[in-house]
Write the structure tokens for this entry.
Amino acid sequence: MANGSGVLTARGLAALKPGKWVADPAARGAGRLQVRKLASGELTFYYRYTDESGQRDRLPLGTGLDLREARALAADLSRRYQSGERNLRQALGIEANRKRQEQQREIEAAAEREIASFGALLTAYVQELHRAEKPSAASVGKCIERHVERVWPVLWAKPAADITLDELIEIVARLADQEKLREADKLRSYLRAAYSAAMRARQDARMHPDLRRLAIRSNPARDLMPVEGGAGARERSLSVEELQAYWKRISAMPDETGALLRFHLLTGAQRAEQLARLQVAAFDAETSTVLIRDTKGRRKTARMHLVPLLPEAVEAMRGMQGGRLGPFLFTVTAGESGAGYASLRHRLSAVVEAMLEAGELPQGGFTVGDLRRTVETRLAALGVSKEIRGQLQSHGLGGVQDRHYDRYEYLDEKRDALKKLLNLLAPARKRTERKPSRSALAA
């Protein structure tokens, strides 16, 4: 239990019987260390002292301590007791309460840091894009997940306000070093836009609340320079001969793929993401038009973009649906779902590959974007004005006049431009087109 002087020892405590108390000797007025062995064989340590009212009190120090740890705790309490803290239980209760409060503040601060993390910022930005019905929302989310969340978990968890320009450069440089310049530049623009959106959200009540809660006050991505070579500005425009060869091929394709590609081209190569959202209600059979909701760019309200359909485009639309009236118009699944950019690109690639093998593309292959550029280039050569080309393809219409005042749909001009395009695609059609008889004119 104890040696000859009464000092507790580890061996003596091991031999102590359950239920028994023992104590270290101590000077008068200093309090002392007490130990009791439980029925389980565990030792429970206490500091015993006389409080300010003259009552003896025992403060539990803990169970499972070794003798050295228990003595250190008791010695600390003895110093406080002898310095004048007579009601240690109350003092320790206050301290315990303060520690609990500090721990709670730390927990809340950690939760706040998690809420305001870099990852939370990027996630909220993607959610804002989805809420604004931006076509790019899904692709932006995938890019951020693939190149930030999976690769930089430490930065993902770091407070967004503490992210530095150097850290952002590292994120973008990883892709640039892999020669993925276009992807690197897109990611750079997403990072910059995310911080800008969070700053704007502090003043715009309509933006996503998660962005506002981040309380972002500065944009470290503002000074991220564009990635040289990442803009990916292409100059490819098909020659008349290449465009006619492409039309000849897709005109001979009897399946839904041919119909899809023909409809895309005959509408002036509209943006695939917007075509993919077209549903049956968007088609007006009386005026032979489709109404596209154009959300491209920073528009918060979609621009209503009316596109006239030539008879050949209507025929292609029916061909895509395979005789069934599904909800979607631009489709390869008989209307069950819309055909987005990836679907259009996949089917176009097969045609391009066949054309390359046949030697029909002396200038090389082309993409969906190249087709859109080609349509504008060829229409310009046919004398279609820049204004009408912009109206047909719904671009360059961001001015105040276009946004608020110019409600004229330019339907006749757009339809005339598409007729010129079709005549260019199939020049024989123009030559063999019968002129109306005099009697018909008279009628």
Observations:
- The first strand starts at residue 21 and ends at 23.
- The two ends are 127 Å apart (CA to CA).
